[in-house]
């Protein structure tokens, strides 16, 4: 029995998941947060609750490639500041998943996608007005880091959708492109790996899901390589507009399903 038969996937459905995996690789090395489109595809093709467990190892594969590409540009003081708050958010997300059924998870993912699309639109508009980065050593800076950390931990545990939250935080903290990519690469590798025991305990990751992951991980590599090539060439403004539109459509589809 092959992977497609095991998951009752048609050729078009597997192709959609393969494209989503390729987009994961691209987002990890070029446009962070673009994998919200992958999240919508996975949740549309697979049962919503199970999709979070299947997507997680694919994201980890992309994280490894991103770390190998941008490891010299990470800002560790920022990472250490975020991790305690993120842990609180991950635990809260785990407790939520313990009682939420597939319908609630699907609705939650749709709502999170629409929220993240709104956050991204707000980020792009405010980014047009230059302002001094907020010092993370101030009380306001620490409160901001904790707030984003908890929200990022919760959204990444429930829907693997912490990317836009962390993108907004890192950009507002004044990170430039390479520092942004390096810091987010280590952040998501560590956070996503730490989520694995929780996902296994919830039954979201098992032998069947890992078999599908093995087939999809192959597509992450060309996406990451293309992202590395395109990061200095891509028209990011247009791409973000397309990502926002696709995210809104995906979120609305899940809410109306």
From TrEMBL:
Membrane topology: Multi-pass membrane protein
Keyword Mitochondrion part of the UniProt annotation: no
Superkingdom as given in the UniProt entry: Bacteria
Keywords, comma-separated and alphabetical: Cell membrane, Membrane, Transmembrane, Transmembrane helix, Transport
Subcellular location: Cell membrane
Primary residence: membrane
InterPro entries linked to this entry: TM_pro_TauE-like, TSUP
Residues that span the membrane, as ranges: 49-70, 82-99, 105-122, 148-172, 178-198, 210-232
Similarity remark: Belongs to the 4-toluene sulfonate uptake permease (TSUP) (TC 2.A.102) family.
Name of the protein: Probable membrane transporter protein
UniProt organism field: Streptomyces musisoli
């Amino acid at each position: 029995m092959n992977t497609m038969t095991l998951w009752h996937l048609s050729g078009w459905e597997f192709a959609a998941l393969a494209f989503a995996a390729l987009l994961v690789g691209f987002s990890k090395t070029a446009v962070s947060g673009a994998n919200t489109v992958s999240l919508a595809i996975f949740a549309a093709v697979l049962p919503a609750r199970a999709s979070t467990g299947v997507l997680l190892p694919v994201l980890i594969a992309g994280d490894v490639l991103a770390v190998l590409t941008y490891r010299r540009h990470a800002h560790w003081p920022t990472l250490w500041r975020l991790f305690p708050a993120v842990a609180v958010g991950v635990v809260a997300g785990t407790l939520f998943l313990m009682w939420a059924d597939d319908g609630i998870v699907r609705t939650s993912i749709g709502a999170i996608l629409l929220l993240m699309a709104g956050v991204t639109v707000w980020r792009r508009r405010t980014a047009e007005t230059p302002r001094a980065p907020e010092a993370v050593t101030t009380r306001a800076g620490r409160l901001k880091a904790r707030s984003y950390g908890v929200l990022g931990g919760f959204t990444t545990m429930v829907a693997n959708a912490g990317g836009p939250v962390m993108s907004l935080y890192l950009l507002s903290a004044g990170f430039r492109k390479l520092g942004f990519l390096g810091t987010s690469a280590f952040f998501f590798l560590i956070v996503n790996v730490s989520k694995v025991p929780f996902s296994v305990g919830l039954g979201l990751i098992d032998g069947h899901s890992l078999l599908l992951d093995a087939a999809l991980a192959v597509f992450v590599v060309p996406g990451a390589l293309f992202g590395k090539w395109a990061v200095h060439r891509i028209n990011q403004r247009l791409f973000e507009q397309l990502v926002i539109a696709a995210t809104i459509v995906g979120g609305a589809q899940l809410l109306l399903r």
